[in-house]
Amino acid sequence: MQISTGCRRIARVFLPFAAGYYLSYLFRTINALIASHLSSDTGVGAADLGLLTSVYFLVFAAAQIPVGILLDRFGPRRVQSVLLLLAAFGAGLFSVSTGFLSLLIARAMIGLGVAAALTAGLKSIILWFPRERVALLNGYMIMLGSLGAVTATSPVEHLLAWMGWRQLFEILAAATGATALLIYVVVPQRRDVLSTARATLSSVFGDRRFWRMAPLSATCVGSSWSLQGLWASPWLTDVEELDRASLVRQLFIMSIVLSCGAWLFGMTVHYVKRRGAGAETILAMVAVLFIAAEIAVVLRAPLPSILLWSVVAIVGTATVVSFAVIADYFPPELAGRANGALNVLHFGWAFLAQYVTGLILEQWSATDGHRPVQAYQAAFGLNVALQIATLVWFALPWCRSIASWMSSILVFRPADVPNALESVGLYESSVILLPADDDLEW
Question: How far, in Å, CA of 232 to CA of 218, rounded?
């Protein structure tokens, strides 16, 4: 009976929301592949292309707090199904748009429509599955959703070979509408557990632990989304001089690594939590690895390009770790608000990184359609510097603890000897007898 119940919950709760998140990830990353088509068809430049792609993140970020409140109030089923209908309409509008403004509005509608894709899935997991399985299922959710990034590479490239990007978005509009209907019809409603608590957003934003962790998570995860979602493609073309086939192949490998990373992070957090440890250490390790990979990219270290860019890609699923940290900080009734608040910073940073990178690149003139490596190094380097700053901020409490521990060892007074020996059972024993402090000569 337990297996049957678990299978029903997977089929009726987990998989429909995973499908919604899959579409969200597909919409998020597809512009990296169709960027050249958009530029040739509509005449948008690098800055406009950066704004067009990043407005998804801006609207997504702005919607996170209202979405989190709605999820806690009405449940993920209603909120997700309604918003996905809006995304379907936005995709349809995108498919028929001819000017930059209409494309921008359509892209913004898509961003708003999929704004609950991840947080609704995470909320449904909290509502329907045992707490000890939450981190693991979060990993599977993000793994399946990130297959949308895989689809936005070679599979979409093959589709574009016999249909245009406009027809592709018509198909995506229909698929998104069908997913909205599926969620509304199939997913049950948990009225008994909808939040009635008086806890508010101040409980999240007033927590010092949140503001210690969130900037690091935002600058790393948001930067990964920004790079994979758009700027990895121009770098690989302009700097590493990959042809179209090699570019699509590398983006495809990065997407596969991204998907596997979600599973890896989910398993790691699950393993660590079962042993009573926290997920903060994992987040710090991921940040260090990410920063090191970016520095190697910027400095053009003699390492395989696919290795470095795979590290950049995999950090995009480190949200599994970040949300596990959030789950340690806040109770389930605040899950929607807390996850939404963190996502505001994730997507807000992705917007800034993606848009500002385009603005910086515009400062260098293109030669034969390609910008110099110095332009990318300046844009990427600024991002890395800010990530290092947030890592230092995150590590400050640890540094203070280590400094306090070291000082307690180095600052040694004779009066401390009896207490220290007494703590290990040696003071006033038959073996060791100590004179008074005044009689000791040091």
Answer: 19
